[in-house]
Amino acid sequence: MRKLAMVLALLIALASIGMSLAQGEITVVSQSYDNHFPKDLTFHLQVQGNQDISKITLYYQVGSNTSYSYAYPTFTPGRMVQAEHVMQTSGAKYVTPGSEMKYYYEIEDSGGNKLKTSQYDLTYLDTRFNWQTIQGDQFTVYWYASQQIAQLVFQTSQSTLAKMKTEAGQSLQQPVKVWVYRNKQEMDVALPFQSQTTSQDIITQGQAFPDANEVFILGSDPAVVSTTAHELTHLLTEQLTNNAFSRIPTWLNEGLSMYAEGQLRSANQSALNAAIRNNSLLNLRAMSSLPGKPEQVNLFYGEAHSIVRYLIDTYGSTKMSELLATFKQGTSTNEALMKVYGLNVDQLEANWRAAIGAQPAPSAGAETGASSEAQKVPTIVPFGSRQPQTAPAAQQPQALTNNITFYVVLAASAVVLSLALVVGLAFARRK
Q1: Given CB 3.0 to 4.6 Å as the disulfide criterion, which of 61, 370, 388, 406 pairs with 365?
Q2: For the residues 316-339, what does the mean pLDDT come to?
């Protein structure tokens, strides 16, 4: 009898555990998404539980980003719920078409029970076209209109990657997608938002999207070959140098892409030749970013190409590969050049100018128009001020004197008020 009671107690305990597990069970009935290109991705989730579903969180990762973002789908709490989340993919929240995405859900019921789903994958496609592919080694060309243009882009991609590996020590670290669009109107829809005026005035021949490891190419452009080489090399350079601390100088980034094109474009070569003759070359230190003057753009690209060619021809592909690897560590330009070539920026410029038969660079003062006058320095922003204010350095001592005078007067006033208070209290006590 005693053994029977123990068995019954054990069965009751097991049944209780089973009931507890059943009460906390959460099940995903279905999940899906709708691609409303180029507007949004809409995620759908159907969940049921033995207790009310109280919270749903959608975690998602786009492109090569290593971190997850999150959102809260909308739904009405209950034991069977339909949840939905609309992810904007255009405008300020632009997502590059072709991006690979990963996502999963975390679901919680009113009893505190939780479920983390498995990971789901999707590709955010430009759904307007029936895409076909040509597969290469670590790259794929996507096309829908002209197979002949697609083959040309494929061959250019193949030869560019081979050239940059042999001559510049660059190799892809991650697979790349190359999307070929038929015309400007169709490609503009897939690009980040531009104003109507900008879209009408500017023709985008190609664009690289490092976060998605993708390149867009305008197939109808006459310069499709050079554009493919240029943009693909931008993606290649980004993969080899991307880090959280610094960016490589623009002269190196653009110079490598110009080098990949092969022969320097005539407009850039003419601007470079004229600048050598007139001693009007841009200073290398000023080429860490693109020039602000439109008339200097052709010269900038010509110089960038020339400097990169000088480095590769003089020191070889291995050194260039080492330079990019050094930048990957977040090293500054001067430090990277010194570590790999034993030259700082100024020494590199001097050697390059000598190699191309140009005159030495002007002194820093002559180049930048620096003067001996006092420069403006920031001052402390007063409370309530929206904009930081500046004052000439020569006026700072006077400002300091004014501040001291103000505090002396303030202190004296405090003493006078204190004395008046003491006298007042004494007079009141006598009364």
Answers
A1: 370
A2: 97
